[in-house]
Design a protein that fits this description.
With about 350 residues, the protein is α+β, with helices and mostly antiparallel strands. It is built from five helices and 13 strands. Helix content is about 20%, strand content about 30%. Helix 2 packs across helix 5.
Amino acid sequence: MNYLNHSAPLGLLALALCGITGCAQQAEQAATANQEEAASFPDREFDPWAEPVGEETPEEAPEEAAGERVYFPSPEEREAANERAAEANEGNNEATPGEEAPGSEDNSPGNEGGAEEGQEENPQEPEPQPEPREEEPEPPRTGVHGDYDFDDGDSLLYVQVFKDESAFASGFAHNHAIRASNWEGQLSYPDGRAQDCELTVSLPVNELIVDEPQMRRRVGYDDELSQSQRNEIRGHMLAENQLNGERFSEITFTATSCSGGEAAAGRLTVRGNMVIRGESSPVTISLQYRIIEDSLYLRGELPITHAQFGFSPYRAFGGAVRNQDRLVIGFDLQSNTRN
């Protein structure tokens, strides 16, 4: 993506060069669009990133499995058990072959006639059977899995554009923060299988919002631009030699693979292709994530360049005002559904 930097005096000259009537009409339309859409700047009730999240947060140790512990006797206990077994064997061997072992006759009163019919003379007690163990329920799944939807109602998707500090008139120029509006994204990560990961994002180029005060503060800029400056910047941004919004109406990203996302918080890496101005370029996005209740939160930055997508940074007045080739796309996303 590309946007522009300028000074107020140089901006007035640019308006004169491009034609007062045409630029004024474009500025009026842009002002209306920006004022209406700026009101939808997302405002969360709490900060999901209040506590730091490391590169990869380990899962909590699972609770000890239910069931009997395995018992290992000491050497002394094993020796005593062997002695008791030997004594028992000696007692069993005293009986003469063919004779009943002592104690085998039942001389108790009432049983002189022998065992009752149908009753075994030496019934054996049944071996004790282990009590059936209840199957433990499977623990709830952790990590990124399932389907998630994103949009601009709860999420920020934006790009930062940087002026070239080495340009002659850079002191009159500004860095910029451009927010995407009315965009949609879907992430499908069934059972955490990387080969089945799907992520798509599509944003309308002509609904990009330029340098809102909230957005500038969000990225750390301490100044504000007037509405007329913002309108002028937007006009240059959508021009034919920049995003060319009339011909290329969408910017898209489509994932080809994902990795990570096993724990309740950590890092998710997404690889895919981004299309700007009809030009596709492979990119890798590294995102921190956190799952809170039923929402998935993602944040991260993706550095790209104009050259990746076949066009040059904005410049004016022989290069006295110009942008860097480097751009940074920012993500601060919250899912609004989970299946």
